[in-house]
Amino acid sequence: xxxxxxxxxxxxxxxxxxxxxxxxAITGGKGGVGKxxxxxxxxxxxxxxxxxxxxxxxxxGLANVDVLLGMKARLNLEHVVSGQCALEDVVLxxxxxxxxVPASSGSINMATMSRLQHAGLIGAFSHLMEPLDIxxxxxxxxxxxxxxxxxxxxxxxxxxxxxxxxxLTDAYGLIKVLSRRQSSCRFEIVTNMVDSAAQGRxxxxxxxRVCDRFLGVTPAYLGYVPNDDxxxxxxxxxxxxxxxxxxxxxxxxxxRLASLADGWTPVARARGGVEFFMERLIGPELxxxxxxx
Length: 293
Ligand SMILES: Nc1ncnc2c1ncn2[C@@H]1O[C@H](COP(=O)(O)OP(=O)(O)OP(=O)(O)O)[C@@H](O)[C@H]1O
Ligand SMILES: [Mg+2]
Description:
Strand 7 (187-194), helix 9 and strand 8 form a beta-alpha-beta unit. The protein has helices at residues 3-16, 35-48, 65-68, 77-81, 87-90, 115-126, 145-153, 165-181, 197-215, 229-236, 241-244, 249-262, 273-286, and strands at 22-27, 53-58, 92-93, 99-101, 134-139, 156-162, 187-194, 220-226. It has 13 helices and eight strands.
């Protein structure tokens, strides 16, 4: 098939493709528990499974996905929001095939964006050239409006915890806020930096008990990621551990998490995953009836 035919065929596929991306927020409450590492490694593992995966760096305070992946972001989401370029222009492709939307530190405030900027952002994601299978969203630490908004808009909320009292109480606080605001949030716990599978499960069960008892919420267990020196080595190389050391304990763990996440069914809606996500994200302010609040 010559190039022209190929372009045409790809164009037709785009037009007819059902856009039912899975949108997964990675969060955790406490800082430094491994949210971003989970996001980049889960993303790389999903990309290596052949899924069209995009990672949105939504830590507008301390954006660092591009640094962890050794990429240089010349343009970022701020330029899209201000209308200086298209979303396609800022998207970087990592060696795994993972596509990354970088953010610049401290520059974007969803809450103070104008209506025009909001609409521009929805449009940018809706008109992505390639339909996405999965959109991962790496969120900031804490319980800021941004974290809440991104988590609420996602179909699944992955909560990363480690074996520290503050991590458990922060994760509990986050689940409490999200579940009170929107009962349909689906939580998936990842226990990180644990010494064994048993320690990971114990930690999950601790969190499950308090969530069940005091909130009536039962988060699912996605799995554990061990404390792994190979992961630290990969960080120094600005690479994902799933690529640099694919048979290391943490890489295997991320591959397991990825195959489970790959099995999740996207929420089937006429308007599809990514558009729906963006509308939910900024819809309440725009007054769009997106089925939230
Ligand atoms: N499984 C692990 N094994 C070894 N070290 C780890 C592991 N997970 C996280 N770390 C360490 O924790 C650090 C913080 O990880 P990461 O940046 O992903 O956390 P974060 O939750 O995104 O932090 P922030 O809240 O600042 O965004 C890493 O730089 C690494 O040193
Ligand atoms: Mg982070």
